[in-house]
Design a protein that fits this description.
Blueprint lengths: L1 H7 L5 E9 L8 H8 L5 E11 L5 E12 L3 E12 L4 E12 L4 E12 L4 E10 L4 E12 L2 E11 L4 E15 L2 H7 L2 E8 L3 E4 L4 E12 L2 E12 L6 E14 L2 E11 L4 E3 L5 E3 L12
Antiparallel strand pairs: 1-2, 2-3, 3-4, 4-5, 5-6, 6-7, 7-8, 8-9, 9-10, 10-11, 10-12, 11-13, 12-13, 13-14, 14-15, 15-16, 16-17, 16-18
């Protein structure tokens, strides 16, 4: 037990709860064996592992649990990881099949079937995710899925500041919005509307401001037509979380059937079904092949 206590000293401020089973691999004692044992720690298997950290006021900041673990000098390798952490306004729960907690960096590196959920409705799924216990954020370079209510995003590489409720998806972004149909269209087209937005990235999401900004080679597709632009900002209703306004900037093209409108800026008011083009738009109408001009 002396060896385990010595290793626990490497985790100041963190309470460790373990059950230790020592496995003796050698049964013959000899001078050579004893010399080898002086240079290495005995094999050990740890079950029911738990790390807990408290604030100066005594409140629990986070708790990390695992089915089994292997103690190293400044880190712990863990199987079947689960993490519970509290913030000022939200709680998060993390699960993964494998993980490694680095004491020096207060960083958990999670792998395989990683799922993060917060009490305000955000879910993140990926195969590898890093959780920074001090900065209260998560980040990954792997393909990632982020979902909240009817707004679901897929992309590659992401960071998420859980305390400030912001996220960034780095590239290859596809967002699906499946929300209630505006009142003026519901009687004709049903009660749900699907909108797909793609961009090269990044995508910047601010959940506190109910805003998502798509950057670089952005395309919006829905039943009303397509919009192309350099940048598109999507604003959501705070209550219903339905899209209420779309603002496109830079090289804007609005495609509706065979008609194309060009502008430097376009504002789409979703509930009204109205598009505002404030900066000298140009409308190109595709004429019918046999249509004669009205004026000669």
């Amino acid at each position: 037990m002396g060896m385990v206590s010595r290793k626990m000293e490497n985790f100041p401020g963190i309470m460790i709860k373990v059950k230790v089973l020592f496995l003796i691999s050698a049964v013959i004692i000899c001078p050579v064996c004893m010399a080898q044992e002086d240079n290495k720690a005995a094999d050990q298997e740890i079950n029911g592992f738990s790390l807990v950290q408290y604030s100066d006021s005594g409140d629990k900041k986070w708790e990390l649990n695992g089915r089994s673990a292997e103690l190293e000098e400044n880190s712990v390798k863990i199987d079947d990881v689960s993490i519970l952490a509290s913030g000022d306004e939200t709680f998060l729960k993390l699960k993964a099949r494998e993980g490694n907690f680095d004491r020096d960096e207060s960083l958990a590196r999670l792998k395989k079937d990683v799922v993060l959920k917060t009490t305000d409705g955000i879910t993140i799924k990926t195969d590898a995710l890093n959780w920074d216990a001090e900065a209260k954020n998560v980040f990954t370079e792997e393909p990632v899925n982020i979902k909240r209510a009817d707004f679901e995003v897929n992309g590659r590489g992401a960071t998420c500041d859980l305390e400030n409720k912001t996220a960034e998806v780095k590239k290859d972004v596809t967002a699906n919005i499946n929300a209630a149909m505006p009142a003026y269209m519901a009687a004709v087209s049903g009660d749900r509307q699907k909108t797909v937005i793609t961009c090269d990235g990044p995508l910047e999401i601010n959940y506190s401001k109910n805003k998502a900004s798509f950057l670089n080679n952005v395309k919006v597709e829905d039943s009303q037509g397509n919009i192309l632009a350099d940048r598109i900002d999507v604003y959501f209703d705070a209550g219903s979380r339905r899209v209420k306004c779309v603002v496109a900037r830079g090289g804007v093209e609005i495609i509706n059937g065979g008609n194309v409108t060009y502008s430097e800026k376009a504002i789409y008011l979703v509930d009204e079904g109205r598009v505002i083009l404030p900066k000298r738009p140009k409308l190109v109408i595709q004429s019918e092949p046999n249509l004669k001009p009205a004026l000669q």
